[in-house]
Write the structure tokens for this entry.
Amino acid sequence: MPNPHSPALPFNKYHGLGNDYLVIDPADLPGELTPQQIRRLCDRHYGAGADGVLLGPLPAAAASFGLRIFNPDGSEAEKSGNGLRIFARYLWDRGLVDERPFSVATAGGLVTAQMESGGRMATVAMGRVSFDSREIPVAGPRREALNETLHAGGAELRYCAATLGNPHCVVLCEELSAAEAQRLGPLIETDARFPRRTNVQFMQVLGRDRVRIEIWERGAGYTLASGSSACAAAAVAHRLGLCDAQVTVSMPGGRLEVSIAPDWTATLRGPVTRVWAGVLFEEAFDA
């Protein structure tokens, strides 16, 4: 039983293909979460352990619910496909939504989500993909940032940049390697051409309807799965004419289905798993 003399913070933990988040209701917080507290929450040795924190539901003027998304380094993310599917499942588990579509406001824009299969599957309309360098952003003159070259770790890489409200750099590869993703990912994330840093996907095209990616997430590091990364990779493959509009994206954690509409809006579908619910005691935040 919780110690009544030690205030506790309730949380729920979920994962989407191994990409795990802690969901915290703002009503349970005595004040604002600090970056230091978020880092401790996500620490797998000193905290509950996660790839990020979801803070919601929050009031939103133009949506059913509001959501804030935090990386494990304490920085705030604009959007997360896995995070949004997890948040949708959390709302389902609390009885706040059913199988009808509902909207969520994020720092990266408004999205629409829908649950199915008794809450085990979620579909999220992630918004429009843009390759505009000013929107992403990418340094230099305004352009579609496609088939450009960068140098990192002694390698010359061909990449395309995109945004769904958060920045992505998709590196085209003949073969994939988790070790190379972990070696080159942090160098590309912090490359000077990306003023807000960037998420990085190393992509191998397997067919007209399939790609495989390794992922280095901004503020999180090497990641087993990422919904927005899957959307960015599928959109780039489609934009380059390498894939059709319906793409299965394979990652170390599993597969997600992505659809790219003629107006370049991306829809993401995949599973969500509830892991556990618990409380974190105040002393866990001690330095």
Q: What stands out?
A: The mean pLDDT is 95. The first strand starts at residue 8 and ends at 16.
